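Input:
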Amino acid sequence: MSTVAPVLPLDPDTLRGDFPILSTVLHGTKPLVYLDNAATTQRPRQVIQALVDVYERQYANVHRGIHWLSDQSTDLYEEAREKARVFINARQREEVLFTYGSTEGINLVARSWGDANVGAGDEIVLSEMEHHSNLIPWQQLKERTGAVLKHIPITDDGLLRMDLLPNLLTERTKLVAVAAVSNVLGTINPVKEIARQAHSAGAVVLVDAAQSAPHQSIDVQDLDIDFLAFSGHKLLGPSGVGILYGRRELLDAMPPFLGGGSMIRRVKLDSFEPADLPAKFEAGTPPIVPAIGLGAAFDYLNHLGLDAIHEHEKLLTARAHEVLSAVGGVRFLGPAPEKKGGIVSFTMEGVHAHDIAQLLDRQGIAIRAGHHCTMPLHKRLGITASARASFYFYNTLAEVELLGEGLDGAKRLFRRK
Amino acid sequence: MPSNDPAEDELYQERILDHYEDPYHRGRAPHATHSHEDDNPLCGDVVHIDLAIDPAGNVKEAFFEGDGCCISQAAASLLIERIDGRTVDEIKRFTAEDMLALFGAKLTPNRQKCCLLSWRVLQSAIYSPVAAQRTNP
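Output:
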């Protein structure tokens, strides 16, 4: 089954030493094979240590206290913002907001920008492959405003029907919001081209980068997009923190989202003046330590290089397609490996996705099974559930082989006759 | 009940795989008087149950159709086999705990939902006459 192994651009066997959890042994004898990275990644010691350091030595509330600890904490928090700015190549630190994750980022835009700019009959263009977090905030906006939602269809092999985009864009189109990478299909969408066409039509562009930011380099200026949201926990960072990038002119014109401490300049009993960016959109005590941990995650990723990570995952994905094809009875969701990131979703003839996941778990292999927060996409594909293996730079070719062996075992269990 | 014998706790044991691959009364009841269908949207499991209940409350025919994981479909088959020929009163007395015991293998809370789907559908089916569904869809 195995041919000559391709040379990987990164050395996962060495990098795994940084991830304590990856040496877990399950069910007595099975080394953990963690292939659920699209749901959340694991953390290296460098990130865990950064969290411990803050809590042990530098923790206080930010932007508040006139005391040494608060200054320490504030400096680290703002350093993390600067690291995020560099990571996505935003022009200014004011364009980089800490959120609680991708979901909050998209909701912030839908509430603040959406309520101020979208009216009855205005159109919002999404796609059929969106995660629920990039569907529901717009459905809620539609309920509030009477806006119209349109969706870029996909091909049967999970590519956006870019040929249909020009017809979907009209003078009523206010926003185009799409995922840079599908969390199920793995499809890498042509965001730059979408942004170009959307801007020509006078629309604003939001990119859900939850599945792309951890794996490929991002340059918001080169892509020429207006909003970009992603989560920290999918790129080695803690859960509970994410980044929302917004173009300065748009953020300046938007009303605050959540109200409370920090987001104000001055408060009277019956009115307030909002603070300047970025505080205007960071009400309450922010996720201080998670944000600092996210800064350490950016350091780690920059050290490896996003291009090398992407190359590594492409090789794993290509090999996974070969290995799963050899098992037989597997239907891949999404395009050919060269058109996608490190996500391999599939169904298996005669074996439900939950049974696949349960049987793989016995071999120590963690994958995701279900609809992956994309019910409309699954309906479009004519299925109710799928299995998904998703890779990161610490996954090895040997783990891909184990996945194949596990699936072979699952298939044999259900085809006994 | 969970047992001390690991073979009886085994999820994919012979008995369950047999019911999954060769189910009892999969199909539609020819003379259904009662029926119900429900799903488990989180995993996509679907179960439809048809019953033919005579005026005395005896289940003369019991059939199921469905789609989903091994547990949901094997559980439906086990349940239909168990209640075929019994009475409506017996079905009413058949609790969720009884269903888990009938299934036998140990289940995590998430997968108990798969096992209990057919039980939920059955408990609704006995209150869902087909005639009423036709006139009042």
